[in-house]
Amino acid sequence: MTLAPPPRLSHxxxxxxxxxxxxxxxxxxxxxxxxxxxxxxxxxxxxxxxNRRIIGLxxxxxxxxxxxxxxxxxxxxxxRTASRWIRERASLRTVAAANAVFDEVRDEVLG
Length: 111
Fold this sequence. Notes:
Elements: H1 5-13, H2 31-55, H3 61-64, H4 68-87, H5 89-92, H6 95-110
Helix pairs in contact: 2-4, 4-6
């Protein structure tokens, strides 16, 4: 569910199922609304993790061992994808949408 905060609360109040009080002070939200927040955080975290695996100390050996020209293309795909995941996380919300971003970036880089 991708509702803004006021409709989320309205939705939660209208549910006949249990309400979750996870990570929210003073308001009860539905499990769907909470999972929606988790999905947004998940996409952003995946972007940060992907960046770390290219430019941080925990580099991915598969990419590091590629020939130089392939290494540059692979790293570019990962970094551009990760950047979009972080910037667009609020609108992506699903793994399928995140995968679609990867496909778009891959096609742009590889031509």
